Amino acid sequence: MRVAVIIPTFKRSYDLSRAVSSILSQTYKDTEIIVVDDNNDDEYRKETEKAMEQFIHLPNVKYIKHSQNRNGAVARNTGIKNSNAEFIAFLDDDDLWLPRKIEKQIEIMNSKDSSYSGVACFHIRKYKNFAYKAVSFKENENGNYFFELLTGEKSTPTSTLLFRREVFDKIMFDESFFRHQDIEFLANFYRHFKMAICPHFLVSIQLEGKRNYLTKDKVFTIKQKLLEKYKNDISQISLTMQEEIYNYQNLELSKMKFQSSIFYSLAKKTLAVMLGLTKYRRFMNLEKYWENA
Question: 37 or 250: whose pLDDT is higher?
């Protein structure tokens, strides 16, 4: 069963080679790699083309270029439309996988009945060489994590996911979302399908380098749009749970407001000094989470 791995890339050619290499190193070999270049025809496009030179000769690699930047949701949909694989996974251009990521997730999917159409694995978050957070959670009985998704209790970034092809016969990424594309997609997913959990740390979410952030005003607009689109779904759960969702979303907006302040800038500089004084001590022992993965 072939697995297509879709990598949307935008202004991060320096990380792209690492991401592609982590797929080529997978123990599960029946893979197809689709890199969707979402840059404009500028220096970033040239840098991305150069980064892809070492891979484009490989028979299982496709390199597709958008004529101009269209956003990550469109790039992922482009990749989906250009594959007929039985399973589809996603890898952001600045993240990477452990070698057994696909193998472990396919094992989980094969152990579940047909009502389960997706599987998420655990992940760690890194800044440069330092792992500062490990994200794991327990699997529930109904395979639905809609509430946990909108309260941030269960984090399943796009790079941790693998889906059966049938999912994309029913839903696609909403191309009007310039942020929260993964949250919107998963909220839609839970309307129709169940999610399995692969209890292994198999993905590294990398936070160094250029981040493609939106302004807080644009994020506010998108959050409003997300909550409006799934208002009826939210209304189906208890009032207490509804309150938790809206409180969390408001807290996220408050964090963004703080991050744009001078106090946040000073806090970051203070942390950098502290790390320097401790000789960049690891926050967490990465190998402890990845051993036996």
Answer: 37
Residue-range definition of the domain harbouring residue 9: 3-209
Q: Which residues pair with 127 in a beta bridge?
A: 130
**Other Cβ atoms within 10 Å of 209 Cβ, number:** 12
Mean pLDDT of 12-17: 91
Evaluate whether residue 252 is within a structural domain. Answer: no
User: Per the structure, how many domains does the chain have?
Assistant: 1
Integer angstrom CA distances of residue 111 from 19, 140, 143, 169, 193: 28, 16, 14, 22, 16
At 181-231, the pLDDT tens digits run: 999 999 999 999 999 999 999 999 988 655 555 566 777 888 889 999 999
Residue 205, domain member (yes or no): yes
Rounded CA separation 66/74 (Å): 9
Categorise residue 292: left if φ over 0, alpha if ψ from -120 to 50, beta otherwise: left
Q: What is the pTM of this model?
A: 0.85
CATH of residue 173's domain is 3.90.550.10
Asked if the structure places residue 163 within a domain, the reply is: yes
- Helices of type H across the chain: 13-24, 43-52, 72-81, 101-111, 146-151, 167-170, 181-189, 216-229, 231-235, 239-259, 262-277, 286-290
Secondary structure element (H or E) that encloses residue 206, with its range: strand 194-206
Return the pLDDT at 287: 44
Q: Return the sign of the alpha-carbon dihedral for residues 70, 74, 79, 83.
A: negative
Instruction: Transcribe 69-113 into DSSP letters.
Output: ---HHHHHHHHHHT---SEEEE--TT-EE-TTHHHHHHHHHHHS-
Give mean pLDDT, residues 256-267.
54
| CA dist., res. 11 & res. 56, Å (int) | 19
Residue with the bigger pLDDT between 247 and 106: it is 106
Q: CA-CA distances (angstroms) from residue 147 to 81, 166, 224?
A: 30, 24, 17
Residue 181 lies in a domain: yes
